[in-house]
Each structure stands twice: as structure tokens, then as C-alpha cells.
Design goal:
Blueprint (H helix, E strand, L loop, with lengths): L2 H30 L2 H20 L3 H19 L3
Helix pairs in contact: 1-2
């Protein structure tokens, strides 16, 4: 296995772990009625999916997602 293959497998494993952890957090939030925890769990699931797809670290994903959120807020002002 090449170095690239190992890195790809790590990205997939990390992404799957993030997705599982996010699903558990969201489920716990649903059981306890904590809407913010549900949202946090869904955010973690999306982060895991993007990590698998693009191999981007969670901090970088946070920066990118915050940028997208700022842009969407800016566009909503003009609707």
C-alpha cells in the first residue's frame, strides 16, 4: 500500500468516526429534547462526510463552513 493509500484510509476512518459520533450526539439530543445538541450532531455528521469526500481536517471545514454561513447571511439581507 502506498503512502497516499494509507492517508486515504485514515481520512475515511476519521470521517466515518465523525459521522458516527455526530449521529450519536444528534440521537441523544433528540431523546433529551435538546435542539442545539441535535444541530451540533448534524454538523458533525456533515463534517465527517466532507472529511471522507475531500480529506479536509475538521478545523479547515469549520472555517469553510463559517465562510459559507457568512455569505448566506449576507445574501439573505437582499432577499
Amino acid at each position: 500500500m502506498t503512502f497516499i493509500g494509507v492517508a486515504m484510509n485514515r481520512n475515511i476512518a476519521k470521517g466515518n468516526w465523525q459521522r458516527l459520533k455526530g449521529a450519536l450526539i444528534a440521537q441523544w439530543g433528540a431523546l433529551t429534547g435538546d435542539h442545539l445538541r441535535v444541530i451540533a450532531g448534524r454538523h458533525q455528521q456533515i463534517s465527517g462526510r466532507l472529511h471522507i469526500a475531500y480529506g479536509v481536517a475538521q478545523r479547515e471545514l469549520g472555517r469553510q463552513m463559517a465562510g459559507i454561513h457568512r455569505q448566506s447571511q449576507h445574501l439573505r439581507r437582499y432577499e
